[in-house]
Amino acid sequence: MKFRFAAHSQCKILEPDPESRKPNPMPATILDGTRIAQDIRNEIAAEVKTMAAAGVRPGLAVVLVGHNPASEIYVRGKVKASEEVGIYSEKLTPPESSTTAELLAVIEDLNRRDDIDGILVQLPLPAHVDAKKILMAVDPVKDVDGFHPVNVGFLSTQRPGLVPCTPAGVLEILKRSNIPIVGREAVVVGRSDIVGKPAAMLLLNANATVTVCHSKTHDLPVVCRRADILVAAIGRAGMITRDFVKPGATVIDVGMNTVTNAAEFQRFFSGNPAGSAKREENFRKKGSTLMGDVHPEVADVAGALTPVPGGVGPLTIAMLMFNTVKAAKMRRGTRVPELSRA
Hints:
The chain is an alpha/beta fold. Among the domains are: about 55-145, Rossmann fold (3-Layer(aba) Sandwich), CATH 3.40.50; about 165-255 and about 290-315, NAD(P)-binding Rossmann-like Domain (Rossmann fold, 3-Layer(aba) Sandwich). It is about 40% helix and about 15% strand. It contains eleven helices and 13 strands. The strands form four sheets. A six-stranded parallel beta sheet has the order 3-13-10-9-7-8. Strand 1 (about 1-5) and strand 2 (about 10-15) form a beta hairpin. Helix 2 (about 70-85) packs across helix 11 and helix 3 (about 100-110) packs parallel to helix 4 (about 130-135).
């Protein structure tokens, strides 16, 4: 909701601006992340086939410590995606009792192996393990998560390196959906090292004017309403309502939240197209549903919007595959053809 300042002798009173309540003439275009991710996977599969003909097969090692059910699901998805595009994948499963020193030895071995181009350490690690030390031990040229400070530095100075997968996916959605970036005002809500900061840097590198917001930002809705491109990565279900969105803006929802409370489900989805009979039926069966950081009502205001699920999520794994192929090319570039998208 926009506000006008009404002049008074001692103070300024915020009044709602009716303009912010006007919906778009047409509902938001839904940006299909699943389709875009499949396009990228098809391109990667073609690249891998070309590399294989030159005698090189990109290799990805995933380190999964212990038995975290959610992590096991994520890892299965990554291994399956690797196999589908022709990347060699290897899953290492050290026991949960593994010490920091033991895991460092695993990483050091993978760093030395020439058949492994990418190393991914699935988080979270057990509480007794020094996760930062483990991540720092990954060779930056094999850091397909893009978390190592060397790759962070390359991103900030616009040098070739490996970029965090989810932010890279955000940029792919914008570019492949023909959303203008150059000269546009972008607002990123969230400042995490994994999503918010690298997403802001990528948008800045693409010549957007970028503002990064967080929990301490004053008048957050007012700042967000300036955005032509609004990236929501705050980790709070439905926090971004229509009052945060300029009519016609592109909204990228990075959030992945689980709603389990029936009253909360009704608050978010009742009377909204996103709260369809199918979603309600699934909620009754499973007792939960996934939603992003963006309230479903934003579809009435935004010009374009990513859904949850089916938006940014599929791009994360697709960009992991892309990073693995890119890492192989960077490590063995003299022996493989130039990658079309590296």
